[in-house]
Write a structure and sequence with these properties.
Length: about 110
């Protein structure tokens, strides 16, 4: 459905006996993001993986009202989008304490 003014939207909704109108792009964006996030859940994302994750994540956001600067595509920005869209995921940054990646930071996506 093409976005139109609210009065016309309500009028059409009444004619069709629909209380709530959902926009396909919003439903598709949410489903797409949930699939992407499920794939990355509980995996360590080091620097190269973080870039891949950010590119995929931001490429699948269709809400053009969001003004996202390429430089500010970090944990805070991603977490605010997850919170705004009420998606049950959080991204954290953790420093590796042992193994090959000792001392390196990685992102860890959790589903609380």
């Amino acid at each position: 459905m093409i976005k139109v003014d609210k009065g016309y939207e309500k009028h059409i909704g009444k004619l069709l006996r629909i209380d709530k109108i959902l926009y396909a792009e919003n439903v598709f964006e949410r489903k797409n993001l949930l699939d992407i996030l499920e794939n990355y859940t509980e995996k360590r994302l080091y620097k190269e993986d973080q870039e891949e994750f950010k590119n995929i994540f931001f490429a699948n956001i269709f809400n053009f009202n969001r003004k996202i600067n390429v430089r500010h595509r970090g944990i805070g920005c991603i977490n605010s989008i997850l919170e705004e869209d009420q998606l049950p995921f959080r991204l954290t940054s953790i420093q590796d304490r042992k193994g090959v990646g000792r001392g390196k930071r990685y992102w860890f996506l959790i589903k609380p």
